[in-house]
Write a structure and sequence with these properties.
mainly alpha
């Protein structure tokens, strides 16, 4: 027999730690972005002090490390911006999913799909950004939720398919978010390491 008090405690704990993980993710993303922009400005000023000359006969390792450092930090900032944009889309779509689930149950008594969505391939996950930029994702209106029971089976399947697609998009945006966070941190760390090598050893 299910202990309702224990189930309630688990539910509240899940909500609390979900909110905490989202706050920490936002904090780390903003921190790395701020540090990256500040460091980029500092590193660029440092590079201005060095004479720029490129030759394969005598490689200027100091300049090489500095350029690579700036490039990696710039990429880290780019991943941070993509991450922020990805999270905004994810929140927007999750809000629509929850709203649609509530409306459908309220007006048509239907419990919509709760299965774990499919994981997209790496290329398809990245192509999501282009689709979302062009606003190419399904939407389910309040009118569709109210009239769902009156639709033909084909139309019902189409609406349910749209809902599953929305959940898949949100799920894969979440995967992109964590993937981009790792890339952002790794690129930033390598950029700092190369700059430190340039300053201390070259």
């Amino acid at each position: 027999m299910i202990d309702k008090e224990l189930l309630k405690e688990y539910h509240e704990r899940n909500i609390r730690w979900t909110n905490e993980s989202l706050r920490q993710l936002s904090f780390s993303n903003n921190l790395i972005l701020s540090l990256g922009v500040g460091f980029l400005s500092f590193a660029y000023k440092n590079m201005e002090l060095k004479p720029l000359s490129f030759t394969l006969e005598r490689i200027d390792w100091g300049l090489t490390f500095c350029i690579w450092s700036i490039t990696l930090i710039a990429l880290s900032i780019l991943f941070g911006l993509v991450l922020a944009l990805s999270r905004l889309w994810d929140f927007r779509i999750v809000r629509h999913i929850n709203q649609t689930r509530q409306r459908m149950y309220e007006h048509s008594g239907l419990k919509l799909d709760e299965e774990t969505p499919d994981r997209y391939s790496f290329i398809k996950r990245w192509s999501l950004f282009f689709e979302l930029f062009s606003e190419k994702y399904p939407r389910i209106t309040l009118d569709q939720c109210k009239a769902f029971s009156k639709y033909s089976n084909k139309e019902k399947e189409r609406i349910e398919g749209n809902f599953k697609e929305l959940r898949a998009i949100s799920y894969n945006l979440g995967l992109n978010t964590w993937g981009n966070t790792k890339f952002q941190i790794v690129l930033f760390a390598i950029g700092i390491l190369l700059f430190s090598i340039d300053i201390l050893f070259v």
